[in-house]
Amino acid sequence: MKKTCSIFVIALILYLSVINIRPVYAGTLGETYNENSNNKIVQNSSTENIQYISLNTQETDEVLEVFKHNNQQLYITGEDIDLMAKLVSAESIGEPYEGKVAVASVVLNRTLDPSFPNTIKGVIFQKNAFSCVKDGQINAKTNQDCYNAVYDAIKGYDPTNQALFFYNPSTATCNWMKQTPKFNQTTIGHHTFFKIKS
């Protein structure tokens, strides 16, 4: 009886310690984690110094992700991820998946640029930064694709060539977006992603 009880307690502890554990990603862009074998698989797709680490927690105010680029680190909470997914949903309606990742990448790129706030919330709610914040569309329902796009951006996939801005040339009402000198332009779907000349 005592032996059976001990085995049950040990099995319960092991089960509870394993449930809800997500794989930890810690490596450069191009490395993936194989959940089935618990081995890191290295793919030589990029040499950029970008790292992604996922931490095991479900609290929205605790750090869930760490985005590293060169010598900078950005600690990302569940609230940040939810906010980014809402922004991606509102700003990339009708855009391809790559366009959704691109919108999330712009947010991350801005947090690492000294010209912008250094938090995701600060970037998203910066005055006049995103039209969906101004008109309230950021509160619309989001979907799993938007969350997946956010996680892909956090993992280091940036199809924008480190863009800090984007707009839809056919619907933009902001003259600054239309007239400002741009470089590193990339078009994805209906959006043009770019940096500005200093």
TrEMBL record:
<protein>
    <submittedName>
        <fullName>Hydrolase</fullName>
    </submittedName>
</protein>
<feature type="domain" description="Cell wall hydrolase SleB">
    <location>
        <begin position="94"/>
        <end position="194"/>
    </location>
</feature>
<keyword id="KW-0378">Hydrolase</keyword>
<dbReference type="GO" id="GO:0016787">
    <property type="term" value="F:hydrolase activity"/>
</dbReference>
<dbReference type="InterPro" id="IPR042047">
    <property type="entry name" value="SleB_dom1"/>
</dbReference>
<dbReference type="Pfam" id="PF07486">
    <property type="entry name" value="Hydrolase_2"/>
</dbReference>
<dbReference type="InterPro" id="IPR011105">
    <property type="entry name" value="Cell_wall_hydrolase_SleB"/>
</dbReference>
